[in-house]
């Protein structure tokens, strides 16, 4: 047994940009934290802040009941953990490495095969917010395992459990990534459009930020419509929005800027109208997206 056995509350393996912030957040919340990184020097600042340096990955595992890994990909995680897998028995492995649902399912099976509880997870809010309540961290896997470690994981931010299927974390990870970058693509187009009229981007961002609560409010309402499979026209029909998109395309061309972003949504609306949704509410566009290649 390692000299360090169970002397810390949590261990962090992989001290890159994200892993370092994870360890800092655990320390800031008062949890005894053991750390290991391939390049040992990256642990120095954390040790100065009170972390315990583990000399090997195996020592980091045996130091705590909760082991958080944050590495570039699952292959690297398995390559690192494979030779020391027996030391995971009886512990909880939390994998905050980005990957696919299939990789998460395989990793969960692998961990179970070595007698470890497993939570898959994803950090959704970049590195700067880690440790603050608005930093979203999603986790999936056994609800009992999440409940047992929630008080430590909550040090990272808004620790949200998605369900028992370990694959859910990467599913949400990619979905939320798509949502964020879709919204930002719209913002970049808008900033270019108003910029063509000489509007300062920060001036526009202030007005746009005030508009976002309305946009966000549509998500809950449209989610209900999607769930019901009924699309009332209260927020405008596909036809009405398609006409508005044509105005946006014309205005963009007149301003001499690219039309890639609005063209994407304009095409989707046209396909929805062709598929028979012209008079349906705009949320019906989901049926065109969900049908994929079948009605492209
Ligand atoms: N950074 C973000 O904003 C962010 C946001 C959300 C999710 N994530 C996810 O978090 C994970 C880590 O990202 P990151 O930004 O922290 O990456 P990073 O800064 O590039 O750090 C990578 C870490 O992995 C270690 N590593 C790489 N190959 C290794 C190997 N073969 N054996 C042992 N250790 C190895 C590195 O060790 P060395 O120091 O020795 O090179 C380093 O600690 C990724 O899956 C990423 O998608 C990151």
Would you mind describing this structure in some detail?
- By secondary structure, the protein is an alpha/beta fold.
- It has 2 domains: 10-163, Rossmann fold (3-Layer(aba) Sandwich); 196-295, N-(1-d-carboxylethyl)-l-norvaline Dehydrogenase, domain 2, CATH 1.10.1040.10.
- 52% of the residues lie in helices and 12% in strands.
- Strands 3-2-1-4-5-6-7-8 form an 8-stranded mixed sheet, with helices on both faces.
- Strand 2, helix 2 and strand 3 (52-53) form a beta-alpha-beta unit.
- It is elongated and about 65 Å long.
- The structure holds NADP nicotinamide-adenine-dinucleotide phosphate.
What characteristics describe this protein?
single chain, 296 residues, alpha/beta, Rossmann fold, N-(1-d-carboxylethyl)-l-norvaline Dehydrogenase, domain 2, 8-stranded mixed β-sheet
């Amino acid at each position: 047994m390692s000299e360090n056995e169970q002397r810390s509350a949590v261990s962090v393996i992989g001290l890159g940009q994200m892993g370092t912030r994870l360890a800092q957040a655990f320390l800031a919340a008062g949890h005894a934290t053991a750390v290991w990184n391939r390049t040992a020097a990256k642990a120095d600042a954390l040790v100065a802040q009170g972390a315990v340096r583990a000399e090997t990955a195996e020592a980091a595992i045996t130091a705590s009941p909760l082991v958080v890994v944050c590495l570039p990909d699952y292959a690297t995680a398995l390559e690192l953990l494979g030779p020391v897998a027996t030391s995971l028995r009886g512990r909880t492995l939390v994998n905050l490495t980005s990957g696919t649902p299939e990789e998460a399912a395989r990793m969960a099976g692998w961990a179970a095969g070595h007698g470890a509880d497993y939570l898959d997870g994803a950090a959704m809010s970049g590195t700067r917010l880690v440790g603050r309540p608005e930093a979203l961290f999603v986790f999936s896997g056994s609800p009992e395992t999440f409940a047992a470690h929630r008080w430590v994981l909550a040090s990272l931010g808004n620790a949200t459990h998605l369900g028992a299927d370990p694959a859910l974390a990467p599913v949400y990870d990619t979905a939320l990534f798509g949502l964020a970058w879709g919204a930002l693509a719209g913002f970049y187009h808008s900033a270019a459009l108003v910029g063509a009229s000489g509007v300062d981007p920060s001036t526009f961002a202030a007005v746009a930020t005030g508009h976002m609560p309305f946009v966000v409010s549509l998500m809950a309402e449209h989610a209900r419509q999607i769930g019901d499979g009924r699309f009332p026209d209260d927020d405008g029909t596909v036809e009405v929005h398609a006409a508005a998109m044509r105005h946006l395309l014309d205005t963009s061309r007149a301003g001499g800027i690219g039309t890639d972003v609005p063209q994407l949504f304009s095409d989707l609306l046209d396909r929805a109208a062709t598929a028979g949704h012209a008079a349906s509410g705009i949320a019906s566009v989901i049926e065109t997206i969900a049908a994929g290649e079948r009605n492209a």
